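As agreed, record passed on underneath.
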Amino acid sequence: MPSEPVRPAPSLGPVQAGRSLAVCALIGVAVMAAVDEIVFHQILHWHHFYDRSTSGIGLLSDGLLHTFELLALVAGFVLHADLRRRRALAPAHGLAGLFLGLGAFQLFDGIVDHKLLRLHQVRYDVDVTGYDLAWNGAGLVLLLVGVALTARARTRTAP
């Protein structure tokens, strides 16, 4: 007995560009937090999230960052799946949001955590100028890519 082809579910509402951007920005923040925590905290051992106390407190702060990052990633993907299920995902806005989240986390960490709050530095016992320039420069590039992608997505969806 031949089966009927599965028809896609009808759209449950209009595409949600703003929500797509925000959800994917959350995913971007979580991904960059994961990269920071895995590469710089665990693999290279350059710093902990909070380095102004004992190494035990540093490890605890890394665990809390890891918890935040995992919760943000799960929440982001649940919200992303909901957008897809309802056929409301705007892919171009989602890609822009991803880059905005990546860059925003990197710059926030580099400017606020490293310089203003002095929670930690990129690296210790070296001149951090080059590291700071690379860290914040990479964040700025990611953020600018996100801004450019946002502008492009908006022009493509403008009435």
